[in-house]
Structures are given as C-alpha cells and as structure tokens.
Amino acid sequence: MQLRVRKGAIGLALCTALSMSGNALAQNAVDLKPTPQQTAWQDLEFGVILHFGTNTFLDREWGDGTADPKVFNPTQFNPDQWMKAIRASGAKYVVMVAKHHDGFCLWPTKQTAYSVKASPWKDGKGDVVREVALAARANGLQFGVYLSPWDRHEPKYKDAAAYDTYYNAELTELVTRYGDLVEFWLDGAGSEGHVYNFLKIIETLRTYQPNTIVFADTALFEYGDARWAGDESGKIEYQNWNVIDRHGFLRWRPVEVDTPLRKLHWFWHPNDDASVKSVHDLVESYDNAVGHGGQWMLGVAPDNRGLLADADAKRLEELGTALRERYGHNLFANHLPTDENTARALDGDTGTFWSAPAGSHFSTLEVRTPKPVTFDHSSIMEWLVNGQQVQRYRIEAWQNGAWKTLVEGQAIGHKKIDRFPAATADRVRLNIVTSVREAAIREFGLYRTND
Predict the structure, then answer these.
(1) Which of 14, 324, 358, 393 is the most buried (most CB within 10 A)?
(2) pTM of the predicted model, to two decimals?
(3) Domains, in order of start, for the chain
(4) What is the DSSP string of 19-74?
(5) pLDDT tens digit string along 68-99?
C-alpha cells in the first residue's frame, strides 16, 4: 500500500476479545460472526482517503522528510468545499492522512516542530485535522485518520524504543482531540528494520477509541478489524469471503479496496487533470469493490490552493449521479403482492431481511412484477449478523415456460452485484443452491444499466 464507529454499548476492544476467544474454538469459517462495529462499518460501503501536505506543494508523491514547512501555505483552504463534493459522490466517510511518510504533521502536535505550526498558513496557528473533521461531520460524513508509522524526518526514528514513545504520543493526540473516529489506517510501510510496537499502538487506540475499525494489511492480521484487498487496482478479483485464515487462525476481516481518483496519483500534481479517472472506470471499480462485498476507499487530493481541483470535484459529482442513476431504482419496487417475509427483501430497508425456512440449506426467493421488466444487473445483500451463510446461488428468470439461469456465483456477503446480458421477465428468483444454515437476505434488486 502507498499508506501503510460509531459509539456502541460495548467497546470494540471487548467485542474483539470475546470474538477471538470464541474464534479459537471455531472449527469452520461459518461459525464466525462480525462485531456490531464491523457490520455498521460495512454498511458505510464507500469512503474517501485524503492526501494533503508538503508533497502537494512540491509536485511529489513520496516526501523524504526534508521539505521546508514554509512551503505549506494553502491560501484558499476550504475543507467544506471538499466535503460537499465528496458527499455528492455518495461516500459516507473520510479518512484524513494526518501524517504521511515525510513526517510533516497536519495538526499542531506537541511532539515535533515539523508541523503546521512551522508553516505560514494561518501564521502557524492552524489545524488541518480539526477543520477537516468539523467539515466532514457538518456534511454528514464520518471521520477517521491515518498516522504513518514510517517517519523520514524524525531523528528518533533511528531509535526504536524512543520512536515508539514518540509515535504513541502523536497517536494519543489524534485519538483524544478530534471526536469519534470511524476508521484508523495501520501499516508497516518503510520500516527499514524498525519493528513497530503494534501491540502498544492498538492499546493506545483502544483506550480512547474502542469502537474504531482498524484497517490493516493481512500481514498485520491480528491487529486489524478489516483487511486490504491486496493491491490498489480498485477491484476484488476473487470470491470474497469475510472470514480468512492466517497461520491457522480464523477471523472475520472484511475487505477494503483502495484506489486513487487520479491514475497512479494519491497527491495532487499540477497540469495533471488528464489523469482523473473516467466515470466509467470509477463505476466499474465500485461494482468490483462494493459489488463484491467490499468497502471502496477512493483517494482524493486537494490542490495547492487548499481546494479540490475543478476536474476532481466535477468527477466526484458525476460519479454520484451515475451511481444514483444506476442503482437508485430497484425494478422490484413495483412488485405484485407477496407474503410479509418476502416483502422484507424488497422494502429498501436494510434493517429488515427475508429468512429461508428454518434449518434449510437451499431455498428460493421469488418475485413477480405486474408486467415484464428488462434488466441487466442484480444486487443481493446478505444479513451478516449471524455470519456469512450463502455458499452458492443463481439468479433465474422464468422464460418460455422454464427457469433460465442468468448468472451464478458463490459468496454474497455484504453486497453482491452481478452483471449479465439483458433479460426480460415478470418472474425472477434468487435460488440459494447451498447455504450452511438458513439464508437471510436483506435486499434483492434488479436494475437496467444498458452496459
């Protein structure tokens, strides 16, 4: 990786401890269940990670820690403008890169002078993290942070013990000053022989933010609540099961997929608007991330004015419009009367769900419409509170007096979006071919996208 929840009645630290104790006895992945914080986070589906710092003013992706803090001077700094464009895209939360690998801190930390305190911006009295957090929440977005363990500026980095103390002091500031954090990014980037004290990092985080979801590479399996997809392509290109096996230990670790809005660029660069990804490419990434049961994390970068470039803001708004047009109207919204159980999968309420017959390992959910509808995508959401149950399924349409298979797949998980040649029918069903226990489906939808 380039970088490397809400309040609840029970802290995630306790939930994780209970989950791990239970997991040690589990013999099968289907016995594992998510914490309430994990399912709440998965429901957010789409977030944005923000890269902004001295690199922004020096046309760099990777800072080496030697940049003069005086280069940081966004004279039109306006995070509200960022958040309005981000919200228009459909994102539900943002993660601010509070310190990247160059060590420059975007808040007035007491641990180093290498921060916004030494910049001309607001005469050294500004706090980027605070203003971004306030703007995010004012626009209905949840807020999280990334604090790079690798620090190419701080002299203490050469002394592992001293740097661990330094890092945890910075972390304590971030987790105590800026309200509830929805997500904390954790990685071991650029360690150069430095073995980070991850146990202490998590201990510090959990002391003040017990409900924060920790995102981490699978190599940091035991410290994270969510895992990296494996690359920055913006796609999950495998059957996505929420439970993974690491060294013989099974854990519920949903996937987050990170990819930048601009091709290959996480930070803003001048004269680079041509690298902004097309709406088509972004929608395809969304379909292959959220539509494969994962979380989609889109990298967005303010420019050297402290604004989102016009091209970026416009593309985010276009993305939101495209997603609403694509998935905003479920063709099942106008369905023939059905039983109360089936209606729960068609009501647009993700807090309700259809239940297969008790004890069943296969079942069908059939929907009829008043007249034939034409569709080329389907969307299924599984109720995951009791774990991921569906192993194989098919979407089938009644055509010419028989059920025709349109698509078949394996894992459903949080959400599965399937694409297939356009079909027309007034009877469609979700055929649960195999489930470990009785299936539970939150929502079932059909869509016409004309792809």
Answers:
(1) 393
(2) 0.92
(3) 12-327 (3.20.20.80), 331-447 (2.60.120.260)
(4) HHHHHTT--SGGG----HHHHHHHHH-EEEEE--SHHHHHT-SS--S---GGG---
(5) 999 999 999 999 999 999 999 999 999 999 99
